[in-house]
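Whiteboard transcription, Tuesday session. T.W. wrote the C-alpha cells on the left side:
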C-alpha cells in the first residue's frame, strides 16, 4: 500500500480511500489480464 493513501485514510477520507482502493484493484486486475493474454498468445506462437 502507498504511504499517501494510508495518510488519507487516517485523516478520515474514508469514501475517497474506498473508491481509490477499488480503482487500484480494478487497474491491477486489468493489467494482469492484459499481461496474461499477451503471454498466452506468445506461448501459442512458440508452441506452433
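and on the right, the sequence the group agreed on:
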Amino acid at each position: 500500500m502507498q504511504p499517501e493513501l494510508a495518510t488519507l485514510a487516517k485523516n478520515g477520507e474514508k469514501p475517497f480511500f474506498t473508491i481509490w482502493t477499488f480503482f487500484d484493484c480494478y487497474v491491477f486486475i486489468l493489467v494482469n489480464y492484459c499481461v496474461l493474454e499477451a503471454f498466452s498468445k506468445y506461448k501459442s506462437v512458440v508452441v506452433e
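Someone added at the bottom: The chain has one domain: 3-47.
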